[in-house]
Please model this.
Amino acid sequence: MREYRALALAANARVELDLIPDFDAAPPYEEVASTFGENAAGKALHFSRFSPGLVLADDSGLVVPALGGAPGVNSARYSGPNATDADRVRKLLLAMSGKMGEERRARFVCVLVLAEAGEARGVFSASAEGELLEAPRGQHGFGYDPIFFFPALGKTYAEISGEEKNLYSHRGKAFRKALQFLMAAPRESPV
Model:
């Protein structure tokens, strides 16, 4: 939520972002789909049935072609349900052992879905291309940021500022697409 609010503020968007009221009381949604789009749509459609106005849901993660797309939709669960970011990075680095050059290509993917009353209103996606380093670098960010090298800036996502990350990241690009959609069709309902 902090990331999306910062993105909306940076874009001078007149969009109100709030958590779903009584979110903990809503029936949970289990992410079991095999694509980011299906997971994002499932969450948005599910929770829009329990909340007035538009609901925004996302699914995002890291895709490594040399690993058949892993960790992919399982990025947050790559090392098990209680694993830390460091555990996931260690597992990924082990899986990348011995891979060189093009085999180290990776991309972050984000799919955002806007839904209202159980119906999709918009789907927005973006990616950020990079490569995986052999060891973590940087102190910022989270998840795989310390090993995701972004060539356009010559740094890992963990070495860049929050403002730079919001400008170039998969999530930032997808959210700006959603904002353009929202700003083109003003609504009375908060997101």
In short: The chain has a mean pLDDT of 93. The chain is about 30% helix and 20% strand.
